[in-house]
């Protein structure tokens, strides 16, 4: 079906002649008026002489008989064509939007907001909130985002569900306002499949919402004057402390060692230069600790089962980074490079700042302070290694 959905999302949403009939679900699609006759092709390639020339189709109308179509071949003369081979079939997005609306039990006909581009299917409680549901075509076309200014209902909808035939749009304008996108091509809507497809779709939406909600439960961000910190749904506001920014950087990149030098530098660009110019520095204790973390992560990866694919991907990405980091910190003879003076003073400053921040956090959010003490390691390299992954909104 992927060819079908790709075509439905293209400028010319039609199948020509045998192309349509070679769709495995052609009969169903025609029965349900998703494919509708849209005229006949004007040119056809000759299949009689082997020269592959393309000729204009000529129609012959004899009173009292069905009309017939021909092309003229210089080799064999008149070649009669099968009308089925000449038929153009248009994909009717309106019929698809009606089918989807029915599957989602909206109990009303979709409203065509922009001809052939935007349909409003209805509103329903989906995935934990009330949403307007739209079907749009050509979101990725050059005039795609203009639909947002041309369709007030779509632009004004709060966190709507937007269905597209094929590819999800990548323009950041589309991705704002909490819009959730789903591709119709991920589900089977035809025959009696619409209800099941809608059920699957709502399930995915609910999982997305749970994920979003989970990040609302874990927040670590600043508006410049106040830090809003939420852990397991418990929230508190703090005035700025230097260590909060270090913590935010660490929470953002779990299981990734970050140089204290990088955290301590008030000028991130400079700090990046330091990190890039020299081989990472380390101390023997950090190396041992990183080595044991690496062993734990490898062990965890080996024990994961199929269902934990997100964690698996996470570990598969992190392990090579950690391996490289440990490798780079040792010189060719396997000795750990000497810690430079600036690295040592960064280590002290970051360690102190983080521990002062943890003391402040403990007063309002003791569970978070416990969590940080358990999972944040400070040193020449600092790292956040929670025992289970937390989706922090930073
Ligand atoms: Zn020919």
Fold topology:
Elements: H1 2-8, E1 14-16, H2 18-21, H3 26-31, E2 35-40, E3 43-45, E4 54-56, E5 58-60, E6 68-73, E7 77-81, H4 83-86, E8 87-91, H5 93-103, E9 111-114, E10 118-126, E11 129-136, H6 146-150, H7 152-156, E12 161-164, H8 172-175, E13 180-183, H9 194-216, E14 219-222, E15 227-231, E16 234-238, H10 242-252, E17 258-259, H11 260-264, H12 268-277, H13 284-303, H14 309-329, H15 341-364, H16 366-375, E18 376-377, E19 381-384
Parallel strand pairs: 11-12, 12-13
Antiparallel strand pairs: 1-8, 2-8, 3-4, 5-6, 6-7, 9-10, 10-11, 14-15, 15-16, 17-19, 18-19
Bound molecules: zinc ion.
Structural descriptors:
alpha+beta, binds zinc ion, 5-stranded mixed beta sheet, single chain, 3-stranded antiparallel beta sheet, 394 residues
Structural class: alpha+beta
The span between the termini is 40 Å
Task: Tell me the number of strands.
Answer: 19
User: Stretches where pLDDT falls below 50 for ≥5 residues?
Assistant: 268-281
* Gyration radius, in Å: 31 Å
Q: In DSSP terms, counting alpha (H) and pi (I) runs of 4 or more, how many helices?
A: 16
Main sheet record: 5 strands, mixed
The amount of beta strand, in percent, is 15-25%
Overall pLDDT metric: 85
What's the short version?
The protein is an alpha+beta fold. The chain contains 16 helices and 19 strands. It has 3 domains: 2-31 and 35-91, no CATH class; 93-215, no CATH class; 219-289 and 337-384, no CATH class.
């Amino acid at each position: 079906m992927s060819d079908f959905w790709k075509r439905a999302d293209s400028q010319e949403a039609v199948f020509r002649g045998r192309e349509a009939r070679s769709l495995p679900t052609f009969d169903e699609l025609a029965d349900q008026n998703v494919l509708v006759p849209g005229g006949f092709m004007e040119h056809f390639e000759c299949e009689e002489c082997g020269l592959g020339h393309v000729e204009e189709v000529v129609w012959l109308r004899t009173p009292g008989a069905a009309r017939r179509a021909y092309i003229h071949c210089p080799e064999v003369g008149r070649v009669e064509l099968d009308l089925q081979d000449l038929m153009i079939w248009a994909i009717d997005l309106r019929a698809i939007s009606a089918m989807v609306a029915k599957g989602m039990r909206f109990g009303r006909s979709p409203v065509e907001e922009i001809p052939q581009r935007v349909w409003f299917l209805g509103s329903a409680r989906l995935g934990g909130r009330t949403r307007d549901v739209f079907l749009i075509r050509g979101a990725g076309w050059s005039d795609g985002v203009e639909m947002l200014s041309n369709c007030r209902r779509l632009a004004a909808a709060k966190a709507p569900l937007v269905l597209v035939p094929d590819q999800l749009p990548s323009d950041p304008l589309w991705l704002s306002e909490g819009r959730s996108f789903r591709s119709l091509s991920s589900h089977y809507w035809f025959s009696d499949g619409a209800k099941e497809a809608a059920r699957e779709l709502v399930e995915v939406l609910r999982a997305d919402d749970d994920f979003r909600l989970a990040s609302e439960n874990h927040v670590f961000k600043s508006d410049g004057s106040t830090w809003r910190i939420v852990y397991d749904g418990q929230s508190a506001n703090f005035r700025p402390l230097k260590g909060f920014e270090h913590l935010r950087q660490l929470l953002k990149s779990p299981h990734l060692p970050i140089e204290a030098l990088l955290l301590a530098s008030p000028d991130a660009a400079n700090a990046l230069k330091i990190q890039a110019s020299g081989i990472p520095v380390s101390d023997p204790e950090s190396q041992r600790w990183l080595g044991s973390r690496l062993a734990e992560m490898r062990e965890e990866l080996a024990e994961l089962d199929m269902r934990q694919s997100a964690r698996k991907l996470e570990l598969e990405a992190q392990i090579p980074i950690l391996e490289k980091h440990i490798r780079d910190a040792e010189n060719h003879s396997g000795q750990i490079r000497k810690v430079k003076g600036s690295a040592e003073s960064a280590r002290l400053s970051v360690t102190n700042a983080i521990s002062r921040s943890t003391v402040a956090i403990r007063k309002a959010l003791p569970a978070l302070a416990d969590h940080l003490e358990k999972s944040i390691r400070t040193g020449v390299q600092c790292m956040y290694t929670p025992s289970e992954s937390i989706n922090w909104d930073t």
